[in-house]
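Contributing new complexes? Match this layout with pyridoxal-5'-phosphate.
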Amino acid sequence: MSIQIPFNRQNLFGSELSYIQDAYARNKVAGDGFYTSWCQKYMEDTFEFQKVLLTTSGTHAIEMAMLLIDLKQDDEVILPSYTFVSTANAVILRGAKPVFVDIRPDTLNLNEELIEQAITPRTKAIMPVHYAGIACDMDAIMNIAEKHRLWVVEDAAQAINSTYKGRYLGGIGHLGCYSFHETKNVSMGEGGALVINDDSLIQRAEIIREKGTNRSRFFRGEVDKYTWVDMGSSFLPSDINAAVLKTQLEHLKDIQRQRNHLYSRYSYELESLTKYGVRSTTIPKDCSGNSHMFYLLLDSEKARSAYIDYMKQKGVLVVFHYVPLHSSNFAKTLGTTIDLPVTQAISEQLVRLPIFYSLTEDDQSRIIELTLDFFNKIQ
Ligand SMILES: Cc1ncc(COP(=O)(O)O)c(C=O)c1O
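Output block (do not edit by hand):
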């Protein structure tokens, strides 16, 4: 059967195309135009971030962060293996070494109790990933970082609008990285943002993002010509993409309301599956999530494959991820052999259900009904 309910779907809210037209009318479609500034200011005001720079992707925000902390050959960065490849690639690209640490079985986030034993004299940074938009234990991580004088770069790619003890994720470590890829709650197609919480990094961040030049200062009239002043690359998105992001940010409350509604409904309707050993997200107290993901953890890889196949036969796409980075063929070429039992187990059990703004109540009811049928009648 063909897929009738996709895993994800994009949504136009209405003003995107007129904003793009307006960007052309302003005769400024490269980066740092009206729309880029608007989005950055919106994030600074709404999430109380010191400084935000839009980037071409979440991947590039992390790569910029690694440049900013001066990550060098043979330095080490502590991060989870249960994450998207970009978190580790940014480390490898600097010639440094990713040191994978196991995750917690409840939040699937970096296990803060295992971090200190992974620290060596070469450790330069910790990169907590707020998986599914749920916060890592940031107090514990910041205390460890302070004690060992390490940078903290939050991979908040999935975490827009989520909080830890009342603070928005991405604004707690020295740097925070967002993704606005089409799979995220708020999207500009491809894009991201770097959040800079340390004053001393702001000017250099602007330079790195502008191909190693001081063009940002030139545009502000602070220097009379711009020139090559540092290393850098083209991490600055077009104002056309930022025009799309403006619409999405203007609808953030609406997007979150809808996602939270879908998330609560899944939680409530599928709660009975605990009798089959199936569980879902844990949100620690003092944290709020953003309903970025709704996942189920099944009791075996075999059961998960059977469930995915069953749903596909019925026209519904449910998906799994990640193949743990430490067990990938590429990691083996780096000589990274390590045993991460929780990461391994979770990667065999987790399956994600469709959750997106335009998912209708009827379609969600069908997903719920099929899921209950699979466990109650078929499995
Ligand atoms: C945890 C995590 N880090 C980094 C990224 C990279 O973001 P982007 O796709 O915008 O480059 C993603 C996106 O999927 C992600 O989920």
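Reviewers usually confirm one structural detail per submission. For this one: The pocket of pyridoxal-5'-phosphate is lined by residues 57-59, 83-84, 86-87, 129, 155, 157-158, 179, 181, 183, 192 (CB under 6 Å).
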